[in-house]
Amino acid sequence: MMERPNLTQALGRLLGPAGPELGCDECFDQLDRYVEFELAGQDADAAIPGLRAHLEGCPACREEHESLRALVGGEQLL
Amino acid sequence: MSAVNAATVALVEPVSPSPTLAPAPPLLDAESRKWLQSLRATDATGEDAIARLHALLLRATRFEVARRRRTLPHLRGDELEDIATEAADDALMSVLRRLDDFRGASRFTTWAYKFALLEAAVKLRKRAWQGREVPLEPEGWGLFSSVGLEPDAEVEQSELLETLQSAIAHVLTSHQRHMLVALALNGVPIDVLAERLNTNRGALYKTLHDARRKLRTHVQERGLALDNEEKR
C-alpha cells in the first residue's frame, strides 16, 4: 500500500521558503563555493545569502548539493 | 543543458546586500592553475588533460548513478553505465565550453564535479519519468497523513491546507496552478517538467516561486500562521 504524504511536508512544499532565495541558475553558479565553505567549517550561509533557502525550496538543486558535498567530502577523507 | 545554458532568472528574489554577485577571488590554487594550463594546451599535454578530466567527470557521474540506483530498479547495470558515460561526455563539453568562467572561487575539481553531477542527475530523473504522464492537477487533497501532530496542530494545518486549496484554485493563474501542483504537490522533477514544456529549470522555478509568494500573502491576509519552516 502506498504511504500517505505527510501533511506538514506537503504544506512546506506548497509554501516554499519564507525568506529571499536565489534562483536555480545562481544556485548552480555558487554551489561549488558554498560546498567548500561548508566542508571547511565556515559560515557558507553568511558568505552566500539565499542559497540555503533555495535548497529548501528546490528538490533538484538540493539533491545536487547533497551529491556534491558527499563526493567532495568523501574525497577529502581519503 | 537546462539550468546551465538557459539562464533566465538570476535571482528569484533580491538578496541584498549581495556578496554572491561580487567577483570571485582572482587567486587560483596551484592544482587548479595546472588544470587550466594543461586543458588550454594545444599539444599532447592538452589531449592528456582532457582525458584526465573526462575520467574525473566519469567518476562523479558514476557516483551519482550509484546514489540514485534504487530509484531505477528496472535498469540494468550496463544501462546505468551508459547513462554515466553519456553524462560525463556532456559534462566534459560543458566544462570545456565554460573554462573561461572559472575564476577559482573553489578548487577546479569541485567546480567541474558540479557539471557532472547535474548532467547525471538530470538524465536519471528523466529516465525515471520516461513514458509517464506528468500530472498537472491535484491527485487528491484528502490523502495527507497528519501522524504525529497534536490535535490542535492538526486542526490548524488542515485549516491552512483548505485555505491553500482554495487559493490555488482561485488566486493563482492557470499556469502557476499547474506548475505548483505538478512540482510541489505531485512531485514531478523540475527537469522533467521543463523538458515536457520546452522550457528550463530557472524559468519554472521562477513561476513556482511567484505562486508560493501569492499563496503566502493570501494566507497571511487571512491571519493564518505560517510556521512550516520550523516544522518541516
Task: Write down the Rg of chain A.
Answer: 14 Å
Distance between the termini of chain B: 32 Å
CATH class of the largest domain in chain B: Mainly Alpha
CATH topology of the largest domain in chain B: Rna Polymerase Sigma Factor, Chain: A
Indicate the CATH architecture of the largest domain in chain B: Orthogonal Bundle
Uncertain segments of chain B of ≥5 residues (pLDDT<50)? 1-10, 228-232
The shape of chain B is: elongated
User: What's the total helix number of chain A?
Assistant: 5
What share of the residues of chain A does DSSP label as strand, in percent?
Answer: under 5%
Q: In terms of per-residue confidence, which ranges of chain A show pLDDT below 50 for 5 or more consecutive residues?
A: none
Number of strand segments of chain A: 0
Give the oligomer, counting copies of the same chain as homo and different chains as hetero.
heterodimer
Question: What average pLDDT do the residues of chain B reach?
Answer: 84
